[in-house]
Amino acid sequence: MMVTRVAVIGILIEDPDSVEQVNALLHRYAPYILGRMGIPYREKNINIVSIAIDAPQDVTNALSGELGKLPGVNAKTAYSHVITTIEG
């Protein structure tokens, strides 16, 4: 049995050298990602990314934690109350 929870991860990328690492992490977690929106804020030289995810909470926490360890990257997660139990 697997329990998943819908969440949103907000990501601010202030170090352009970390963009490739962020994309690699998001690719690794792609099976759980519902959607992604990225906004390059060129005037401030930052990228703003929002990820919608439906995954077990430990997977979401792992992604957010790995993102936050990258230089110049801040990541925060907001969880919904929508929880799904999958038999298997």
What can you see in these coordinates?
The protein is α+β, with helices and mostly antiparallel strands. It has one domain: 2-Layer Sandwich (Alpha-Beta Plaits), CATH 3.30.70.1150. It is 26% helix and 51% strand. The chain is built from two helices and four strands. The protein has helices at residues 19-28, 57-69; strands at 2-13, 33-41, 46-55, 73-86. A four-stranded antiparallel sheet has the order 2-3-1-4, covered by helices on one side. Strand 2 and strand 3 (46-55) form a beta hairpin. It is elongated and about 45 Å long. The N and C termini lie close together (5 Å). The mean pLDDT is 96.
pLDDT under 50 segments (min length 5)?
A: none
**Percent of residues in beta strands:** over 45%
Q: How many β-strand runs?
A: 4
Largest sheet: 4 strands, antiparallel
Taking all Cα atoms into account, the compactness measure Rg is 13 Å
**N to C succession of SSEs:** EHEEHE
CATH class category? Alpha Beta
Overall number of structural domains: 1
CATH superfamily: ACT-like. Chain A, domain 2
